[in-house]
């Protein structure tokens, strides 16, 4: 089963173009080093909940948008190998991060279920 790295972060609305440029570079780097897929999504219907929500989780302000993204790998071992190469890649080391990385939530996930495994 595939292994997934997931991310949630807040990007200032006036830095979306800079974030998009960074995401394009990051996508190329991750895929070049062996990731199977790379997806970036900008929040469109992400309400601020009373107790929990994506915006609360990353302390998003009125002038920020929530980004939800994930990277797919063959398995955990491939993820660890790919990420070691990515972290050493000079294209990302020199990149200006157009968001507050301290408020980013991320983690690695083992796949529990895929539609392709149950439909078919």
UniProtKB/TrEMBL annotation:
<protein>
    <submittedName>
        <fullName>DUF1428 family protein</fullName>
    </submittedName>
</protein>
<dbReference type="InterPro" id="IPR009874">
    <property type="entry name" value="DUF1428"/>
</dbReference>
<dbReference type="Pfam" id="PF07237">
    <property type="entry name" value="DUF1428"/>
</dbReference>
<dbReference type="InterPro" id="IPR011008">
    <property type="entry name" value="Dimeric_a/b-barrel"/>
</dbReference>
């Amino acid at each position: 089963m595939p292994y997934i790295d997931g991310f949630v972060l807040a990007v200032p609305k006036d830095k979306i173009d800079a974030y998009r440029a960074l995401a394009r570079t990051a996508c190329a780097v991750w895929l070049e080093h062996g990731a199977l897929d790379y997806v970036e999504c900008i929040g469109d219907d992400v309400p601020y909940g009373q107790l929990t929500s994506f915006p609360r989780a990353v302390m998003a302000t009125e002038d920020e948008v929530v980004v939800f993204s994930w990277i797919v790998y063959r398995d955990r071992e491939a993820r660890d190998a790919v990420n070691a190469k990515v972290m050493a890649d000079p294209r990302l080391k020199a990149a200006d991060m157009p968001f507050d990385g301290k408020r980013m939530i991320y983690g690695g996930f083992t796949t529990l279920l895929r539609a392709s495994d149950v439909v078919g």
